[in-house]
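Minimal example, chain plus biotin.
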Amino acid sequence: MGKSLVCFADTDSTNIQAKLLAEQNAPDGTLVCSDQQTKGRGRRGRAWDSPPGEAIYMSLLLRPDIHPEHASMLTLVMGMAVADAINELMGGESAGIKWPNDVVLKGKKVSGTLTEMSTEMDCIHYVVIGTGINVNTQKFPKELDQATSLRLAAGHNFRRAELIALCMKYFEKYYALFERTEDLSLLIDEYNRLLVNRNREVRVLEPGNEYTGLALGINNQGELLVRRENGRVDEIYAGEVSVRGV
Ligand code: BTN
């Protein structure tokens, strides 16, 4: 992964650039990075603040031979890779995952991933997994008070290139588990190990409904299993609801 590397000093969005490269037949595993983005995009149509010199903005292009319904797991795979990469670089800091794929450090968000996909019939043409990591950020805008960086957590700067290389190393490790589609149990065990919501009370917010329950971990589709007070276990799909700590 990342052996074909495209780097920008400045671009609109690495996801947009990765999609353009995909249409021009760029190879599987191409990684697009930029020092800053003018149109950085986050999940749920939000903007992703992308100033220069301090963060990682990267998008990985994949052409996996899987059914589109399994592609949502790829976002989780990147979250796992980023969490493990941060933990290795920081020497045992406890980065974890807030379901589905925010990476958190000391309870605050340090990284997010936006995955986009192009399909033809029931086949995937390509997937772009775009990740932002707050590395050396010292100050966030007021509205991002739930954000943190490696620098704020550790008190010193880190080399972004080193963290990107570690992310690719761990992505390869987890992607190999993901490719064993007949048995995802090892991948799911690793994800649940990193899941900060696990065995915690969570509040599930879905349109017109709100309840609390115990988060148990994820299933094969990456859905969060939540046990309600009446004992029923719900499977929560990330696109429909959000989950908060209680
Ligand atoms: C989120 O909302 O948590 C996802 C944020 C994803 C941001 C990254 S930065 C690199 C890539 N390019 C984009 O425009 N977005 C993703």
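The two ends are 38 Å apart (CA to CA). The longest helix spans residues 160-179.
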